[in-house]
Specification:
The complex is a heterodimer of chains A (424) and B (417).
Chain A: E1 5-8, H1 9-12, E2 16-19, E3 24-34, E4 46-55, E5 58-63, E6 67-72, E7 75-80, H2 88-92, E8 94-96, H3 97-101, E9 105-108, E10 113-116, E11 119-125, E12 128-135, H4 138-145, H5 148-157, E13 166-168, E14 172-174, H6 196-205, H7 208-216, H8 220-229, H9 232-241, H10 244-252, H11 256-265, H12 268-277, H13 280-290, H14 297-300, E15 307-308, H15 314-324, E16 334-337, E17 343-347, H16 349-354, H17 361-364, E18 366-367, E19 372-373, H18 380-388, E20 392-396, E21 402-407, H19 408-423
Parallel strand pairs in A: 2-7, 15-16, 19-20
Antiparallel strand pairs in A: 1-11, 2-3, 3-4, 3-8, 4-5, 4-12, 6-7, 9-10, 9-14, 11-12, 12-13, 16-17, 17-18, 20-21
Chain B: H1 2-6, H2 10-21, H3 24-32, H4 35-48, H5 56-77, H6 81-122, H7 127-143, H8 147-157, H9 163-170, H10 175-183, H11 191-204, H12 207-219, H13 227-255, H14 266-277, H15 279-312, H16 326-344, H17 350-376, H18 379-382, H19 389-416
Helix pairs in contact in B: 3-12, 3-13, 4-11, 4-13, 5-12, 5-13, 5-17, 6-7, 6-12, 6-14, 6-15, 6-16, 6-17, 7-15, 7-16, 9-13, 9-15, 11-17, 11-19, 14-15, 15-16, 17-19
Classes of the chains: A alpha+beta (424), B mainly alpha (417).
Chain lengths: 424, 417
């Protein structure tokens, strides 16, 4: 007996397990692994904790600790020293390899995309059996169909190799639990390390049930970031299916203009319910933005901007910024206003940084800055942004009172969306 | 903005929802009347007059029941049919279904290009020009990413299928005879007419349509609360399919059958209509055939490569780059190129190809249907939305009858020897 046996999941499913006397114990239906990274070994391996065994007509879970897989003359044998039933805790916290992984879509964390599992590679060593990788290659597919060996032989005549494609266990995350009743958010912990826009792409490719359960496992900050990156269709799906109070918390974390865009697409009653559930301050901003028609500047402006009075010193402004820790987009352009919000000037980070600390804002600002009207057609924005090389343009109303600003990111996004809808 | 929508009255609101939802059923119904379908209906009309029109009624019922199941599965699971089959039926059955689907759809696409060639010949364009041009245009249309617009244009163009109604009326059919042949269905029990019935049913309920229907429902993002509108959409789509089929059979039955003209291809029917119903009727028929062929030649290869990739886990979709989704683009281009080349080979065995792709269809259909019925009755997958007994009875009897017919189709040529 060798101390190390590697084998494929497809190689032992449906096979009989034997006891020490060579008698059949039962038929192997599925293997259970720990859903959470065990921390017991290095992360690349996952201990097989249990086995679903069919004995006569009954199917039950047993501990895999008493099982060993050995290879004798190219033949796999599963040996069992004695049967110990698996604790229901271990079953509930476990992941079933056939039921949840095999033939299902999983997330490839390195490639940041969905792949379909053709087989699972396992190894038996001294201290147990471990899942080490998933097979997503064509070779695995042919092995499952049972034509791998003959085709490999034929191809080897032309010296063609079918490359095997594996992903290590550490780099995959199962997402499809539609066959199980409940799943806890910690099951998706590996996904939370992905960049929001990658995660958004994956959610769009997933079926709706799974994407919903992954999305609801995210904390509010992350959920807000991901929601921003989703396509409108997918955004609507998430917003409509998440519980109102949780959704409202997520929306509060998003820029008001993005929220307004989403609510604009919802049914009125639903939108109203969400606005009522959100905190006063956020919902008020969103309501104001909702007043604007789609083609007006007001509909793509953000109300997250920073304004200061002209009499503040540079040092005071910097202090305030350190305290507030604003998002980077808010720093694209900084505004100077009278107490009634009338726009009188603007300055940027460079102006601020190169100035002496005790200088007044009024001395570093550019007065009469380029601005847009909130009820101006949105088509005017691109020209102004490119003409004056601005990262953000202030938006004022008829009385020159500051209402918000248009950020170049949103302008670009708007242009891309327009082109895309044209294409489709 | 909030106030505007609220003012809509109940009826207008319902109408608005309906127009937002229609599409999957009606498009599937239109694609169903492709070159292969038109050929089969024309040949049936020419050979048996009004005699086989009754087959459209059971076909219609089965079509509605099957498509409703697809829509329901799509809405409830949010997964494509190929996804569901792969995840629940295992690799071997999946492999069988999709290899079959691939071959039958190469055959079907070939039939579509035959339709392009035949219909353009009537307008005096050689097939050596029309087929390559159509293939390149279809390829560009899909790969260069204007597919969504194209789909809508096709949908409008597919209204030209209704020109068959005009063709039929111009041929002055005998309505009394049509009525009585529907009320008293009759069928000669010989191999030829049996084969015709199988072809008629098989072309109306093609296996790939089930996959197509389910993914368009998902793409459209339909929800269970708007289910009744989806149902209307499906019924309308099936009515379109059957009405067009009806009028093609009537047109050919009224003109070609009494004169004993036998045809092999749909374009033969267009040509044969000329002396009997006038030049206009013939050109109208040819135009409809052309549009239907290009429409299906666009959708068939695209859909087929998509489902194959979905089932085997390759990346797919026209929004992906060539490097990201190599398998998808190779499959898609391959199907188009192979089908177009077959048509351009002089004396290609077109009839044999179309019969063989129908045989594969006939074998595949019961397998796909059995998978579907098992999936839709699985509570783990469908929850409370599993089939009602009536749906199961219709579904299983369709499987039974279709299996019987398909078996006969395979056995009959053996008996003939």
């Amino acid at each position: 007996m060798t101390s190390l046996t590697t084998f494929y999941l497809s190689g032992i499913i449906g096979k009989e397990a034997y006891d020490t006397d060579g008698e059949v114990v039962g038929i192997i239906k599925d293997l259970v692994i720990n859903a959470m990274p065990s921390g017991f070994n290095d992360g690349g391996q996952q201990l097989v904790t249990g086995v679903r065994l069919k004995i006569h007509k009954e199917t039950k879970f047993y501990s895999f600790r008493t099982f060993r897989v050995v290879k004798a003359r190219e033949k796999l044998n599963v040996m069992c020293s004695n049967l110990v039933e698996l604790k229901s805790d271990d079953v509930n916290n476990g992941l079933l390899l056939v039921e949840n992984i095999l033939d299902k879509q999983i997330v490839d964390l390195n490639g940041r995309k969905l792949v379909r599992v053709n087989d699972v590679r396992l190894v038996t060593i001294q201290n147990g059996t471990f899942a080490i990788a998933v097979d997503i290659g064509i070779e695995g597919l042919m092995r499952r169909i049972g034509i791998s060996t003959p085709i490999k032989k034929i191809l080897s005549l032309f010296s063609i190799n079918i490359p095997a494609k594996f992903i290590l266990w550490d780099d995959v995350q199962a997402v499809d639990f539609s066959n199980l009743n409940i799943r806890l958010s910690k099951d998706y912990s590996k996904l939370h390390t992905l960049h929001p826009s990658d995660l958004a792409d994956i959610l769009e490719d997933l079926d709706r049930k799974s994407s919903m359960s992954v999305f609801s496992s995210l904390d509010e900050e992350k959920a807000a970031d991901v929601l921003e990156e989703l396509e409108p269709d997918a955004q609507i799906h998430m917003v409509e299916n998440l519980p109102i109070n949780k959704m409202a918390d997520v929306l509060e974390k998003m820029p008001a203009d993005e929220v307004a865009d989403i609510l604009d697409e919802l049914e009125d009653e639903k939108a109203e319910m969400l606005l009522k559930e959100m905190d006063k301050e956020s919902s008020q901003e969103v309501r104001e933005l909702l007043e604007y028609d789609d083609d007006l500047v007001g509909s793509i402006m953000t109300t997250d901007y920073l304004s200061f009075s002209a009499s503040k010193t540079v040092e005071e402004v910097l202090k305030e910024l350190r305290l507030k820790k604003p998002e980077s987009a808010e720093l694209y352009n900084l505004f100077v206003t009278e107490t009634n919000d009338e726009l009188i000037g603007s300055f940027n980070l460079r102006d601020l940084v190169v100035a002496e600390p005790n200088v007044n804002v009024s001395q570093i600002m550019k007065s009469e800055p380029v601005s847009l009207f909130d009820n101006q057609k949105a088509s005017a924005i691109a020209e102004i942004v490119s003409k004056y090389n601005l990262l953000a343009v202030p938006v004022v109303d008829r009385n020159n009172l500051l209402q918000g600003m248009v950020v170049v990111d949103d302008v670009v996004e708007d242009l891309i969306n327009k082109r895309r809808t044209k294409k489709r | 903005m909030l106030s505007v929508n609220i003012r809509k009255s109940g009826f207008l609101k319902n109408l608005a929802i309906f127009f937002a939802i229609i599409g999957p059923g009606i498009i599937t119904g239109s694609v169903d009347n492709d070159a292969g379908g038109i050929t089969t209906y024309s040949v049936a009309g020419a050979m048996y007059g009004y005699g086989l029109i009754w087959t459209l009624i059971p076909s219609f019922i089965v079509l509605v029941v099957i498509q409703e199941m697809n829509a329901r599965m799509g809405i409830v699971t949010g997964k494509g049919l190929s996804d569901l089959i792969r995840e629940n039926a295992g690799v071997k059955i999946t492999f069988f279904i999709f290899v079959g689907l691939l071959f039958s759809n190469i055959g079907n696409t070939t039939t579509e290009f035959a339709g392009v060639a035949g219909s353009m010949q009537i307008f005096g364009v050689s097939k050596y020009i029309s087929v390559p041009v159509a293939a390149v245009l279809v390829w560009l249309l899909v790969v260069k990413g204007t597919y969504k617009i194209a789909e809508r244009i096709f949908l409008i163009f597919s209204l030209s299928l209704l020109t068959y109604v005009v063709s039929a009326l111009m041929s002055k059919p005998h309505w009394g005879e049509i009525g009585s042949s529907i009320i008293h269905p009759q069928m000669e029990m010989n191999t030829q007419s049996l084969a015709m019935v199988i072809a008629l049913v098989g072309t109306t309920i093609a296996p790939w349509m089930q996959f197509y229907m389910q993914s368009s429902v998902i793409e459209k993002g339909l929800k269970i609360k708007n289910y009744k509108f989806t149902l209307i959409d499906i019924v309308v789509g099936c009515v379109v399919t059957v009405v067009v089929a009806f009028f093609i059979m009537v047109a050919c039955g009224a003109t070609l059958h009494p004169n004993g003209i036998v045809i092999n291809e749909a374009s033969d029917a267009a040509l044969a209509l000329k002396p009997l119903a006038g030049k206009l009727a013939s050109q109208v028929f040819a135009f409809g055939l052309f549009v239907a062929s290009v429409f299906s030649a666009t959708i068939l290869p695209l859909a087929t490569s998509f489902y194959v990739c979905e089932a085997f886990g390759f990346e797919a979709g026209i929004d992906k780059k060539w490097d990201e989704a190599k398998e998808f683009y190779i499959l898609y281009t391959g199907i188009l190129v192979i089908s177009a080349i077959i048509i351009l080979i002089p004396n290609a065995p077109l009839i044999a190809i179309s019969i063989w792709s129908q045989v594969i269809n006939g074998i595949l259909l019961p397998v796909v249907l059995v998978c579907m019925i098992l999936l839709i009755n699985n509570k783990k997958i469908m929850g409370t939305y599993i089939n009602k007994p009536v749906q199961n009875i219709i579904g299983w009897s369709a499987v039974g009858i279709l299996t019987g017919l398909s078996l006969m189709l395979i056995i009959m040529p053996l008996l003939r020897r």
